[in-house]
Specification:
single chain, 238 residues, alpha+beta, Jelly Rolls, 9-stranded mixed β-sheet, 2 helices, 19 strands, disordered C terminus
């Protein structure tokens, strides 16, 4: 009886098993590698902050599509590394979104500032429209919905505010507002800030939500060449 064909088939089957196993190992490794590259940010909190309804502490990891909420006299900073960072003032709520080359989200309450380097586009949506910066330059984009309408201010680069089919340009250091503000709500007026402040400082002051004076520690260069990463806001006040 000739056993060679049987032995050959057995060896061929073993070889195929190793080949298939190696293929699945490569596929699994590739999937894990892609998963490990998923963008994530690190949270820094002052006061009471939640992520998706769960109380959060500084150092917590934030993923895209997370819902961040701050309480009164509280604030949150999401450090996204090379993408930049997002800052939320008191009584704010935002579903954050970020990926390679973009950051932003949906702001439903309060105020937020997105700081991004050149090459990273910013887009923050509200109930009235979408504030955006195309990433051609570094940007500090402030969006405030505290009074029921949408107020946008930008520093370092031009931005746009799109409402329906209408697109408004927001020049650096200027602001644009859309929607009807509440009659009893008072917000900072950029015209009262004086001419000694840089556009970067203006964006920082908007997120701080101050009234007649500085309500928190503002660490920002007084030069118009201020980079977004140099804007630091603490001691937020509504």
């Amino acid at each position: 009886m000739n056993l060679r064909p049987t032995r050959f088939r057995r060896m061929l089957s073993i070889g195929l098993m190793f080949a298939v196993g190696g293929f699945y190992t490569m596929v699994t490794g590739s999937a894990l590698a892609q998963s490990s590259k998923k963008s994530a940010g690190e949270l820094s909190v002052t006061g009471a902050v939640t992520i998706n309804g769960t109380s959060a502490i500084s150092g917590a990891t934030v993923f895209s599509e997370s819902r961040i909420r701050t309480a009164s006299n509280s604030s949150a900073i999401i450090n996204l590394g090379r993408l930049g960072r997002l800052q939320l003032g008191p009584d704010s709520e935002m579903t954050v979104r970020f990926a390679d080359g973009s950051l932003g989200g949906n702001l439903t309450a309060g105020r937020a500032v997105a700081n991004a380097p050149a090459g990273v586009a910013v887009s923050i949506a509200t109930s009235e429209g979408v504030a955006a910066s195309n990433g051609s330059k570094s940007a500090a984009l402030a969006v405030d919905v505290t009074c029921g309408n949408t107020r946008v201010l930008t520093a370092r680069s031009e931005a746009t505010l799109t409402t329906g089919t209408k697109v408004e340009t927001v020049a650096p250091g200027k602001e644009v507002a859309v929607g009807q503000a509440k009659g009893t709500c008072t917000r900072i007026a950029t015209s009262s800030l004086g001419t000694g402040l840089s556009t970067g400082a203006l964006a920082a002051l908007i997120i701080a939500g101050i009234g007649g004076g500085v309500g928190g520690a503002i660490a920002v260069s007084q030069s118009d060449n201020v980079a977004p990463s140099s804007i630091v806001v603490s001691g937020f006040r509504p």
